[in-house]
C-alpha cells in the first residue's frame, strides 16, 4: 500500500489550485512539480539561502521548509504572481532590471518576494533597513550593492506610480 495522499487546495497567485500529495510534500515541490510553477527556486534545501522564498498570506516564508498540507486554504504568491494582471512588471521587478540587481538570476525570485513584503511593511526604508531586510537571502554573484540600490529604486517607483510594490 502506498503513502496516503491528502487533498491540498490553496490560492496561488490569485487562482485556487489543488492537488493530492503526500503529507511530507514540501511547498516548494508542490509549487514546482505539482502545479508547474517553476519560478520558485530551491537552493540549499535547509532554509538558509532564501531562493525558495514565497509569500504566504503576504509574509515571506521558506517554501523548502514548509509542508504543503500545512498551508491548505491559505494564499501563496510566487514570483510568477508579482506582475500586474496585464503582465506589467511590479516596481520591484522593474527596479531589479533597471539597477542590474541580478547576474545568474537563481536567487532573484526569492529576493523579489522578500523585497515585495519588505516594501509593503516599510515603503521608505533607509539603507540599514534594506540591508537588514534582505539579510536572509543569499546571492553568490552580485556583491549586493545593486540589490540594495534596486530596493531603494523600487520604493521610489512605487511612490512615483502611487502603487503598491506587488
From TrEMBL:
UniProt pathway annotation: Alkaloid degradation; nicotine degradation
Molecular function as annotated in GO: 2 iron, 2 sulfur cluster binding; metal ion binding; oxidoreductase activity
Keyword Iron: yes
Keywords, alphabetical: 2Fe-2S, Iron, Iron-sulfur, Metal-binding, Oxidoreductase
Pfam families: Fer2 (PF00111), Fer2_2 (PF01799)
Keyword Nucleotide-binding: no
Top-rank taxon: Bacteria
2Fe-2S ferredoxin-type domain: residues covered: 6-82
Name of the molecule in the record: (2Fe-2S)-binding protein
Amino acid at each position: 500500500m502506498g503513502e496516503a495522499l491528502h487533498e491540498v487546495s490553496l490560492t496561488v497567485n490569485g487562482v485556487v489550485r489543488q492537488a493530492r500529495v503526500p503529507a511530507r510534500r514540501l511547498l516548494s515541490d508542490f509549487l514546482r512539480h505539482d502545479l508547474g510553477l517553476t519560478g520558485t527556486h530551491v537552493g540549499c534545501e535547509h532554509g538558509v539561502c532564501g531562493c525558495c522564498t514565497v509569500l504566504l498570506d503576504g509574509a515571506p516564508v521558506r517554501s523548502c521548509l514548509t509542508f504543503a498540507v500545512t498551508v491548505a486554504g491559505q494564499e501563496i504568491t510566487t514570483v510568477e504572481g508579482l506582475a500586474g494582471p496585464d503582465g506589467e512588471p511590479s516596481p520591484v521587478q522593474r527596479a531589479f532590471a533597471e539597477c542590474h540587481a541580478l547576474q545568474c538570476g537563481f536567487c532573484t525570485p526569492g529576493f523579489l518576494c522578500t523585497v515585495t513584503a519588505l516594501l509593503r511593511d516599510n515603503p521608505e526604508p533607509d539603507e540599514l533597513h534594506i540591508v537588514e531586510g534582505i539579510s536572509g537571502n543569499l546571492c553568490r554573484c552580485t556583491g549586493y550593492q545593486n540589490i540594495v540600490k534596486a530596493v531603494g529604486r523600487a520604493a521610489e517607483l512605487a511612490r512615483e506610480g502611487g502603487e503598491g510594490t506587488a
